[in-house]
Design goal:
Elements (H helix, E strand, L loop, with lengths): L1 H6 L2 H18 L12 H26 L8 H15 L1
């Protein structure tokens, strides 16, 4: 797990989590895109893409909140959050 945290950027990590969560939720019974698309497979894929976009946006917000570069890893975000917390005290 530490290998993933040290190499995968935060935005990609959040996007992959959103892709999986939205895809599984829609596959198990959600009706996000199934009301517009008759075939359940493309509807599930569209839901997963929406989840990836939302996750990427959240990851981008977290990275930009601390003024980090786009390729920041979770360790970089943790270090920036600790620096910000110590700067407030």
């Amino acid at each position: 797990m530490s290998f993933i945290r040290s190499t995968v950027p935060v935005t990609v990590l959040f996007a992959s989590i959103g892709f999986l969560c939205f895809g599984v939720i829609d596959m198990l019974g959600g009706r996000l895109f199934r009301q517009f698309v008759a075939d359940p497979r493309p509807a599930t894929f569209l839901s997963a893409l929406l989840g990836a976009a939302i996750g990427y946006g959240i990851g981008w917000f977290v990275v930009r909140k601390f003024g980090l570069p786009h390729s920041a890893t979770p360790y970089d975000v943790d270090a920036a959050a600790d620096r910000a917390k110590q700067g407030q005290q």
